[in-house]
Design brief:
The chain is mostly helical. Helices cover about 70% and strands about 0% of the residues. Helix 2 crosses helix 11 and helix 4 crosses helix 6. The N and C termini lie far apart (about 55 Å). About 25% of the residues are buried.
Length: about 280
């Protein structure tokens, strides 16, 4: 370089564009997402603690978080909380698993073949509006009062909804993909196996995640059937004796377990379908 040649002007530093929050379906840094999620969970807890700490609520009807936490400790050490959690998880997953085992193939057929849809969808739509709690007397007569009756109540509460959601997931598979497979000479079973199922799998996993949450909401109803253990049974028993701290504890524990289940489904979705933004 010549001594008289001017030095090149340095380029200005390129700044990373700041994250834009209010963008439809926009992206946020993972740290921001975790911070917002933590704030969304902690803020209601702080409001609850402040409301009770200021004496604005009767402790008999709304105990504070510290009283609920103390009740959880006594429940764990003296009243068999771990056993209650275990039996409730077994009942929920038993009913949900039975629903999925039958609803997935049935919904696949309803969503794929119009004659099956015309024959079964109106009946399924009709039954799904019947409240699961109304079946309790019949379930007790048909099945008895053992574990099968509680699993059956959860099954009834989730199965018919799941069938219709699975059928809708299958119907959303683009017809262009099916027609392309037909053009290449694929038969019906090959189209279902190689086109419909792979295309619908992400939506089917989301349907399972949502209906698993519904299964947890039917737990208390299921444990109305002559139960002597479980989180739902503990909530109902606490109601009789006005143990509102235990009612709050049971509700929060069900919410925590349900949230963990939901996050497990989300993790499975990210692992199985990494190309999707979840």
């Amino acid at each position: 370089m010549s001594a008289h040649q001017p030095l090149p002007t340095p380029l200005p530093a390129v700044r990373a564009a700041p994250a834009r929050w209010w963008v439809i379906r926009g992206e946020l840094p993972r740290s921001t997402l975790w911070s917002l999620a933590a704030a969304g969970l902690i803020l209601p807890l702080l409001i609850w603690w402040g409301y009770t700490a200021l004496g604005l609520a009767n402790p008999m009807f709304m105990p504070g978080p510290e009283a609920v936490l103390a009740r959880v400790g006594r429940w764990w050490s003296e009243e068999g909380l771990l056993a209650d959690i275990g039996i409730s998880i077994w009942r929920v997953m038993g009913g949900f698993g039975a629903s999925a085992l039958l609803a997935l193939p049935l919904g696949l057929y309803i969503g794929t073949y119009r004659p099956v849809q015309a024959f079964l969808e109106p009946l399924t739509d009709f039954i799904r509006y019947m409240p699961a709690v109304a079946f309790i007397p019949l379930v007790m007569l048909w099945v008895g009062i053992d574990e099968g009756s509680k699993i059956l109540i959860i099954f009834i509460g989730t199965f018919f909804q799941m069938v219709l959601m699975v059928a809708e997931d299958v119907r959303r598979v683009p017809m262009a993909q099916i027609e392309a497979a037909q053009t290449m000479g694929a038969n019906r079973s090959e189209i279902v196996k190689l086109v419909v199922l792979p295309s619908a799998r992400p939506a089917l996993l989301d349907t399972l995640r949502i209906t698993c949450g519904w299964a947890w909401t039917y737990l208390v109803v299921a444990e109305l059937v002559a139960a002597n253990s479980g989180l739902g049974y503990a909530i109902l028993k606490a109601q009789r004796y006005m143990h509102t701290d235990k009612i709050f504890a049971g509700i929060i524990l069900i919410g925590i377990i349900g949230l963990l289940t939901d996050q497990a489904f989300r993790w499975l979705g990210r692992a199985a379908f990494p190309w999707l933004k979840r």
